[in-house]
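Escalated from tier 1: iron/sulfur cluster holo job.
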Amino acid sequence: MSYVVPHNSVKQYFGALFDAVRTTVVGMWITFRYVWGVKTVSIEYPEVREVLPERARMRLFNDAQNCISCTQCAMACPVDCIYIASEKMPEGSEVKKTSNGQSIRLNLTQFVIDTALCCYCGLCTTVCPTECLTHSHDYEFAQYTVDGMKYDYLAPDVRAWRDRIVKT
Ligand code: SF4
Ligand code: SF4
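Tier 2 regenerated the structure:
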């Protein structure tokens, strides 16, 4: 028994064949441009690091000396990952000022951010009246445990971390 192959099917067959060859050549041309180094896509990390855009939002830093414990950042946070505690200054104690001249009337006793929950939206930094809460450019803060992602900004090592980041 013999079949008559419709003209359209032959056309479709060769059309698909041509498309397959054409798209493979185009795809391989893009691949080989990277393979031959015409266009580089990788860097020798960690010796070489990407320069992040100026407004990139990485790990948060609170310059606690300029924090007035107003809790506006915690209220703005959509995932409630900022934990603040403060107490009244002792009677008659000297009222300190932040670097932008605001009075510090409360004693900050806890400022913790759970960066495992943080979505880096930046809302907390936007509302901060003393601009002490900022995003750093540090993206290298992997931890072995989820609990390790909670950063205590009153701890001395956080200050040391910030100084290291600012210098580099
Ligand atoms: S960046 Fe967004 S999610 Fe992260 S602590 Fe600030 S407000 Fe919360
Ligand atoms: S908004 Fe700024 S000043 Fe107010 S508690 Fe948060 S970090 Fe401190």
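The mean pLDDT is 89.
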